[in-house]
Amino acid sequence: MLTNPVVISILVMTVLCLLRFNILLAILISALTAGLVSGASMIDTTNTLITGMKGNLETALSYILLGALASAIARTNLTAILIRAISNVMSKKATYLVLSIAAIACLSQNLIPVHIAFIPVLIPPLLPLFNKLKLDRRAVACALTFGLKAPYVSLGVGFGLIFHTILMRELGNNGVTVSVSDVASVMWIGGASMLAGLMLAIIFYSKKREYIGSDSEIVSDSLNASMSAKEWAVLAGAVVAFGVQIYTSSMPLGALCGLVTMIVFKGIEYNKVDEIMSSGLAMMAFIAFIMLVAAGFGAVLRESGGIDELVSFASALSGGKLGGILLMLLIGLLITMGIGSSFGTIPVIASIYVPFSLALGLSTPAIILLIGVAAALGDAGSPASDSTLGPTSGLNADGNHSHIYDTCVPTFVFFNIPLMIGATIGAMIL
Question: Where are the alpha helices (DSSP H) in 305-341?
Answer without folding.
Answer: 307-318, 321-339
